[in-house]
Write a structure and sequence with these properties.
two-stranded antiparallel ribbon; two-stranded antiparallel sheet; 354 residues; Dna Ligase, domain 1
């Protein structure tokens, strides 16, 4: 046999060997079961290296061949592995999972979501958070009302000022948690870390408008107080938010009471139209039917539409408004016109029950 044939055979054997090895390697880092898409949760601790992560994935049944997986861990270029809790399945290949961990892919991070809706009182925010965390509503509110904790937050966020610690303010953080849907990705989240997510969102929204707010006649606390009342009174449209804000500012400029029943609802931690006479007569400083000027603080979470409504309030002569049962808001310049609007669009017992 000639030397050329021997070399050719040796080359074929080497190619076959490399091909077989490559096939085995690719198979070994492939999916454990391409048809199994059941979620499997794995937690990657802080400081975990690629080899340690392969062991964690292997323990979870997500690795087809540990030996080839560890080879991939060494040569895969995974140099920014991020600790978190991830959700994978057996139909994923090892490079897919390692790649997701390497960049902290949000799509694969284990998430618990909760929603702080527009107009939520702080008590309702606490309930929403308690539903998805180990903490009770009472524990969450206690933390939010802890003055030492609030002072720490005042030092961190420009829009939180000592005004929130006024003795008449019911809850210091009322109105400061931005309404949005939030995702908890921590394995052991704290009330503090979750709170800061909502404050960070508010920071972003208010910072965009900081110059405008500072040019207004109100402090940031007063501004959010007014915006929260606008929120509760009805700001389904930008036009209504601006118009309602314009009416309130007219009344403030005349040193009148705002005449707002939603502030009375806040005192009693409820939402209703048919308030009792005893409630309307409350001596609370939050009763905007009795006190002139602004109440001590916000009464709910404030959306952007209300913030912008106060910033861009309507230049109007109206001094009154009335929300009818169908959601339409009727405006008036005089009390006589206002009473006519109320009489023309009364709330019925059926409306109140809906």
């Amino acid at each position: 046999m000639s030397k050329l044939k021997v070399l050719f055979i040796i080359l074929l054997i080497l190619v076959a060997g490399v091909s077989a090895g490559l096939f085995l390697y690719l198979s070994g880092i492939g999916a454990v079961d391409s048809n199994d898409k059941e979620d499997i949760t794995v937690t990657i601790p802080e400081g975990s290296g690629a080899s340690a992560i392969v062991e964690i994935l292997d323990d979870a049944g997500l690795v087809k061949n540990p030996t080839f997986a560890k080879i991939n861990a060494r040569i895969g270029g995974y140099n920014s592995l991020q600790a978190n809790t991830y959700v994978f399945n057996k139909s994923m290949t090892l490079p897919e999972m390692m790649g997701a961990i390497n960049k902290g892919d949000f799509d694969y991070i284990s998430k618990t979501s909760f929603q702080l809706s527009e107009g939520f009182r702080l008590t309702q925010c606490a309930d929403a958070l308690a539903a998805v965390t180990p903490y009770s509503s009472e524990e969450i509110l206690a933390k939010w009302d802890d003055k030492e904790y609030v002072r720490e937050l005042i030092g961190k966020y420009w829009f939180l000022t000592d005004e929130v610690l006024n003795k008449d303010v019911m809850h210091p953080l009322e109105g400061y948690l931005f309404p949005d849907t939030y995702y908890i990705t921590e394995t052991d989240p704290t009330v503090e870390s979750i709170t800061e997510m909502a404050l960070d969102e508010m920071d972003e929204v208010l910072t965009e408008r900081k110059a405008q707010i500072e040019q207004s006649d109100y402090s940031i606390h007063e501004f959010l107080t007014l915006a929260s009342i606008v929120t509760k009174e009805g700001c389904a449209t930008e036009e209504d938010a601006a118009h309602i804000a314009g009416v309130f500012i007219n009344r403030l400029n005349k040193d009148m009471s705002l005449g707002s029943d939603v502030t009375v609802c806040y005192i009693f931690d409820e939402d209703r139209v048919d308030l009792k006479v005893s409630q309307l007569d409350s001596d609370s400083p939050y009763n905007a039917r009795k006190v002139s000027g602004l109440i001590p603080g916000p009464i709910c979470s404030v959306p952007e539409i209300a913030i912008d409504g106060v910033l861009n309030y309507a230049d109007t002569d109206d001094m009154f408004f009335y929300a009818g049962p169908d959601g339409t808001i009727y405006y008036a310049k005089t009390n006589e016109e206002h009473e006519k609007n109320v009489s023309a669009h009364p709330w019925t017992e059926e409306d109140l029950e809906q």
